[in-house]
Amino acid sequence: MKFILVFLTTSCLAAQPLRVQLVTGGHDHEPSIYALFDNQAGFHTNVKPHPQAFAADFRRNTDVLVLYDMVKTGLAEDKRARLRDFAQAGKGIVILHHAICSHTDWPWWFEEVSGGVYNEKSTFLHGQTMPVKIKKEHPITKGLRDFVINDETYQHLWISPKVDVLLTTTDPTSDGPVAWISPYSKSRVVFIQLGHGPEAHRNPNYQRLVQQAILWAGGR
Ligand SMILES: [Zn+2]
Prior knowledge:
Bound molecules: zinc ion
CATH topology: Rossmann fold
Structural class: alpha/beta
Helix content: 10-25%
Number of strands: 11
CATH architecture: 3-Layer(aba) Sandwich
Number of domains: 1
Largest sheet: 9 strands, mixed
CATH superfamily: Class I glutamine amidotransferase (GATase) domain
Number of helices: 5
């Protein structure tokens, strides 16, 4: 009986949805992105724009930070400190699409945490029909097969040689890697370059990718 109670208690704890903080702001986007976060059994999402998202210590109420914002430069030092504290606390960070354009003036962030950055040398192209190849078997790519998506491509990013690439494309307007695990060891960080507009947001492969990335980043 005691064993059953213990088992039930741990089962209930394990079933607690992850607390996701989705950060927006600094870049236009279409509302189709929000459907990815709605009505998910594994996680519950709160949306906050930057810089308010980093105005207070959010380690206690957040398991996974999902960045869909863009702050190219100049994030204030106190807000940088909160982002750094969160990363160092062993939490989860999912960086989506234009959030890779953030913090071009913060080398620690892009060299160690995000594993890449869209800088002044980088270029973009909208509306590409691109093949996406699963490069690595991983909980984030589980159940997915190579797919085609209509999305924006980025090229000439700076990418750390230490990233672990999950997805690639042969689209000639892309660098190739379109999703990777960062080398950062203190928390689980994943970057997914896909996700500009409704064509991507409504693609079931993209939805599964983002949802599995959140669960993985949260340690599930
Ligand atoms: Zn975009």
